[in-house]
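## Example pair
The file below holds two records. Each record gives the amino-acid sequence first, followed by its structure token line.
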Amino acid sequence: MKKYFLFLLIGATIGLTASAQDGRQAKRSPEQLAEIQTGQLKKKITLTADQENKVKEIELEYAKNLQALKNDGTDRKSRLGKAKEIQDKKDNSLKSVLDEKQYAAYLEQKESRKDKLMEKRKERKGRR
């Protein structure tokens, strides 16, 4: 189950790095991803200017680490473990920047995203 969740987490993150364009996937830069992720979080919770800058830095580091992981050529199992470590580091960093209420809202948003991915996966499996 942990591997399945981790796979979904990586898929979601990598999925956020691409957008449909003429039937092909266009890659976004880590800077663009950080901006998008920060904007999504800002929609859910109110951030101070200082918090917003710190969150953007955390998201940028996270996006760069995932991009490096995607390109490192290691086996899938190894990448999943490393992705989990990167996600945990991001969560811990955000926990130190956000207050308790904000962090709880972040976790809720994260869980909601995971649930939506699981539903989409079930729908795809049902079509086979």
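Second record, same layout:
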Amino acid sequence: MFAAENGLKGDPRLQAISQAIRVVPHFPKPGIMFQDITTLLLDHKAFKDTVDIFVDRYRDMGISVVAGSLSLSLSLSLSLKYVLYIFVYGFDSAWADL
């Protein structure tokens, strides 16, 4: 749905990004499909494409602050910071209930 709504349907970058994300089934508990972006961060082209897609989508929306958990998702927030010149706020979600 995201691709169709944002003019990205058929964009080869989405398939490469999807393939770069490791799926860990039943982690941390049965029924959850954990999306591990560590492998995305190691694929410099797929990670750059991810940042480029976010930047293209949000560049003209007047965003000044992004909040991210102190996890790997903060890496994406920090990358956006340098492109969009925004403030990034991190918080610890390690104790959140699943």
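Notes on the second record: Residues 2-91 form a domain with the Rossmann fold fold (CATH 3.40.50.2020). The two ends are 26 Å apart (CA to CA).
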